[in-house]
Design brief:
By secondary structure, the chain is α/β, with parallel strands linked by helices. It has one domain: TIM Barrel. Helices cover 44% and strands 13% of the residues. The chain has 14 helices and 9 strands. Helix 1 packs parallel to helix 3. The protein binds iron/sulfur cluster. Iron/sulfur cluster binds next to loops.
């Protein structure tokens, strides 16, 4: 007679299904996300690592992050850089600065350069994206690395230029796939348009990233829907990050959910989308938070920021930056401690090439969530 409890039997059945790569249902994903027994959560994370190893072995990708303009016209309720926050550090890096920083990041061993800005009114309100196009070209020439752009919602014609300029990734986070909650987070911004722009970028042949915020008012059902939405829409990189309440924002007083929720969410995303890229961001807990996110099945380290350049992070504007802890050598030390290694530049380029070919082969019709 089996000594397993009913909960254990249910958990093992779901994990076996995930290992066999039969798509997990909404109910199964929601069940996993609702676990609070540390032993059960440990089982989910063990299985998530198993699935990561199946697709990526011990190789981890590392992304350099350049937040080149912290100006923004929007008022997202969770964001330190919302337009009216007088506390947030505002700067616009010059083109030459960005190219120099990108070249330094490339020399340090990152696999990709992420060019991020708020919806800077100087660019978005004028429709003059020329400076960004030039930045993309110069960074690509200077680094010979894949480029991700995270410029907020941009018109279709701008997406076309991105594609023609050789941009590999367009990152645009929905934060939640619950439209009602979205309206409280991304105040005054269209839920549909955000999804549509990401979908358009994918249709044009770019890889796309989506991301969700944890602890912003969602429940397990919302988290499960968001994971399914990312799976069904075929995003190539899916991210989850815990909300860090920011001073002088509407969510300033919110109590943070325990980090175990983020680890569990990373692990469940790995089980639901085993072949996709799933980041472990340094932007929430800095270098000390890396091991647990990797233990949960993440396979990309994001938000490498070189010191001495007066660059900011997003959720944590300064954590570990000037101490030089958000750098490739520091990440490599952690990887070595847990039996992982940084991938080679060609590994990453090969992955990008293969995913683009696969996306074309599969078509781009998967834009509806079916629960
Ligand atoms: S999340 Fe992005 S779009 Fe929203 S306020 Fe912050 S920088 Fe602006």
């Amino acid at each position: 007679m089996s000594l397993l409890t009913m909960d254990q039997r249910r958990l093992e059945a779901i994990l076996n299904k995930a290992v066999a790569e039969h798509p997990l249902s909404y109910q199964e994903i929601a069940y996993l996300l609702s676990l609070d027994n540390p032993v059960y959560i440990g089982r989910v994370m063990d299985t998530a690592r198993q699935m990561r190893d199946k697709y990526f072995g011990d190789k981890i990708f590392i992304y350099g992050f350049i937040y080149f303009s912290t100006y923004c016209r929007n008022h997202c309720s969770f964001c330190f850089y919302r337009r009216t926050n007088e506390l947030s550090p505002r700067y616009r890096k010059t083109l030459e600065d960005v190219v120099t920083i990108a070249a330094g990041l490339a020399d340090s061993g990152v696999h990709l350069i992420d060019l991020t800005m708020g919806e800077d009114p100087v660019i978005h309100d004028t429709g003059n994206f020329e400076v960004l196009y030039e930045m993309i070209n110069r960074v690509r020439q200077a680094t010979d690395l894949p480029v991700m752009v995270s410029p907020g919602v941009v018109p279709d014609d701008v997406l076309h230029v991105f594609k023609d300029s050789g941009v590999d990734w367009y990152a645009l986070y929905q934060e939640t796939h619950n439209p009602k909650l979205y309206s409280k987070l991304r105040l005054g911004q269209s839920y549909e348009e955000r999804n549509y722009r990401r979908f358009t970028a994918k249709k044009l042949g770019m890889l796309v990233e989506d991301g969700i915020l944890l602890g912003a008012g969602e429940d397990c059902a919302d988290r499960a829907r968001s994971i399914l939405a990312m799976r069904h829409s075929g995003v190539h990189q899916a991210r989850v990050m815990s909300l860090v309440p920011q001073p002088r924002t509407p969510l300033a007083g919110r109590v943070m959910v325990p980090r175990i929720n983020e680890y569990l969410c990373i692990a469940v995303m790995r089980l639901a989308m085993p072949e996709r890229l799933i980041p472990a961001s340094l932007d929430v807990d800095g270098i000390k938070g890396l091991k647990m996110r990797l233990a949960a099945g993440a396979n990309v380290v994001t938000s490498i920021i070189p010191p001495s350049n007066s660059l900011a992070g997003v959720s944590q504007s300064s954590l570990d930056i000037e101490q030089g802890l958000r750098t490739v050598p520091e990440v490599k030390k952690i990887l070595a401690e847990i039996g992982l290694t940084a991938a080679g530049a060609d590994d990453y380029k090969g992955w990008i090439k293969a995913r683009k070919e696969k996306t074309v082969e599969l078509g781009d019709c998967r834009d509806q969530v079916v629960l």
